[in-house]
Specification:
By secondary structure, this protein is mainly alpha-helical. Helix content is 56%, strand content 4%. It is built from 3 helices and 2 strands; from the N terminus they run αββαα. The protein has helices spanning 2-21, 39-63, 80-93, and strands spanning 33-34, 37-38. Helix 1 (2-21) runs antiparallel to helix 2. The protein is elongated.
Length: 106
């Protein structure tokens, strides 16, 4: 959803600013302004920015669902630090990833 909003804003901002912002103005009196900024900046940058700033808090606070904070059943009740401690203990003992020897090595 966030990437879609970003893509939609980009697809509006880049072409709008390209087509409306890069034309020479001989007389500064010809430049149209809205609240003191050029109209192409207002519609091409300010309005999409404002729309994103208004939409993202609504999306973040009311539309995103919380994830279940409980550990998955596959890991049992272990927390990540306990899993890491088990892995480090096996690596230090040298038994990590090596098959156990049967006693007869030739």
């Amino acid at each position: 959803m966030i990437l879609g909003l970003w893509a939609a804003a980009m697809l509006w901002v880049v072409p709008h600013c390209y087509f409306f912002g890069y034309h020479p103005v001989e007389n500064p009196e010809q430049l149209k302004t809205i609240i003191g900024i050029p109209d192409w900046v207002f519609w091409g940058v300010f309005v999409p920015w404002l729309a994103c700033c208004l939409f993202l808090p609504v999306f973040s606070f009311w539309l995103i669902q919380d994830d279940d904070p409980r550990p998955s059943e596959e890991l049992g009740e272990l927390i990540p630090f306990e899993v890491l401690a088990i892995i480090l203990k096996r690596r230090q003992s040298g038994s990590w990833g090596r098959p156990k020897s049967s006693g007869s090595e030739a």
